[in-house]
Amino acid sequence: xxxxxxxxxxxxxxxxxxxxxxxxxxxxxxxxxxxxxxxxxxxxxxxxxxxxxxxxxxxxxxxxxxxxxxxxxxxxxxxxxxxxxxxxxxxxxxxxxxxxxxxxxxxxxxxxxxxxxxxxxxxxxxxxxxxxxxxxxxxxxxxxxxxxxxxxxxxxxxxxxxxxxxxxxxxxxxxxxxxxxxxxxxxxxxxxxxxxxxxxxxxxxxxxxxxxxxxxxxxxxxxxxxxxxxxxxxxxxxxxxxxxxxxxxxxxxxxxxxxxxxxxxxxxxxxxxxxxxxxxxxxxxxxxxxxxxxxxxxxxxxxxxxxxxxxxxxxxxxxxxxxxxxxxxxxxxxxxxxxxxxxxxxxxxxxxxxxxxxxxxxxxxxxxxxxxxxxxxxxxxxxxxxxxxxxxxxxxxxxxxxxxxxxxxxxxxxxxxxxxxxxxxxxxxxxxxxxxxxxxxxxxxxxxxxxxxxxxxxxxxxxxxxxxxxx
Length: 471
Known about the structure:
This protein is α/β, with parallel strands linked by helices. The protein contains 18 helices and 11 strands. The strands form 3 sheets. The chain has a 5-stranded parallel sheet, sandwiched between helices. Strands 9-8-10-11 form a 4-stranded parallel sheet, with helices on both faces.
């Protein structure tokens, strides 16, 4: 998905609206029903139900997906405006943040972009497992929901700077490990190459170093050429779906036409000539030209469309800014302190002392509790380090023989482990994560925080699932 957004003057005209990270909200213009670029974003070759976590400059794909599902552009614009002015009617976060989202298959993305990598890998690895366990559960007259199709592809996109983040490095490593082990992991990593990260130049590190190190197919396409981008993403997603393995795609030649944030002092790190040249390189202009040359539309039609979208955007923000916000401590606590799913009580069928008159060692009780959970919930899985052979403290002794694929070993990387667990939960599974030491939790802190954030937002709560951590 190329960077096809243009700055929306209507947004800046709203004095009541200001967000520190400019999400280039004007991908609205690039997603009209009658424009070729909208058709590009619609397909993105991804199916409507393929899970997708988007860079905040890639909102066009989410908007196009909603248009394809029958929503009007005006209603989509209003919901996006609600997010930017933190209206309590924002369907994505309910007024607690400005996040990307929109459909049940669009996963919440805040400005912590790289943290979306591990859960995306988890979704890729979890979908087929969830369908397998669902099939087995039906044999026992049990069932649970799996929100994604069996052949779903998980897509996650970031900017070129985020590939250096530890979370993205962890995600890529886990995907490569899965591929090496022939595990099913159809994930596509999309990276936009602006060749600048806030003020730090890219120095071609992304294409000449990072891409060369990847142990997966990596496609590079011209992000300013709609047709080349379409061919590239079509090939990448098709390969991931067919092979069930990870794939990467880099969108090159994509200028960052505006500052990274409202506070970005561009003239401190770039010359005026460079800034002007970047502004004049507009990928959307090329897409419009290609659409006209292909006979899909005309320049007058596109100009009229742009004016209409600008008017609709201004109207959306004028309406959203007047809506109520979360304004009291009580309201905020109610939102962010939601109770979890009600607990049910299960009575053990085995006495704690096993008839010996002596209390059992704690690890035996833990083994019993885990086994009871796995028998009660057909979607429960137990994952961790060395858990297939009993784990650090032998609390999973014998469980692999009884539950096979539901006891899963992963490499010692807690960042990926908690991310995988979140992705599993979003696929309908109930993951239990074993952490041998509490200290290891700090490695996956962001993942745990992201999960909590999901549970307290309207959009995220639909797909957050549950994750239990056993330390």
